[in-house]
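Minutes, project check-in
Item: structure for the 165-residue chain
Input as provided by the requester:
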Amino acid sequence: MLIRDAQDDDWPAIYPFFATIVAEGRSYAFPEGLTLEQGRGWWMETPPGRTVVAVDGPVVLGSAKMGPNRPGRGSHVATASFMVDPQHSGRGVGRALGEHVVDWARTAGFRSMQFNAVVETNEPAVRLWRSLGFDVLATVPRAFDHPEHGLVGLHLMFLDLSSAG
């Protein structure tokens, strides 16, 4: 597996699993029914943000987007979002993307990382982020309308990058 910067021509390979994950409604509060071009604006970052893909040869296994959580006086805090093609789950793609993004944020000089909205019922994601050192700072109750569980919380997760790591 190789993680590299996403190119414009990677988007048609990302979009099918992006659309599937958004339509499932279990982990992202993106608008439903985004077209190929509409979805691009929600996922493909422009500087100072960055989007990467995890690939195995020509096959896109997953993708992550990252950048400052806020502009200006909040730009020292990074954020990121991740999607793994469900056809390739269980292969360590999410962990590889997570480690890549944390290393990128640390190298880029960010002081911390903040995930603004991790669905509390997304146990694999919560477990992965905790294993990479993130803490749940707070949970906003009933902030996400899950298709099976109804209204569930969104975790605010945080990782301090200012210490040696």
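Outcome recorded: The beta strands are 2-5, 50-56, 59-68, 77-84, 112-119, 135-146, 150-160.
No further action items on this chain.
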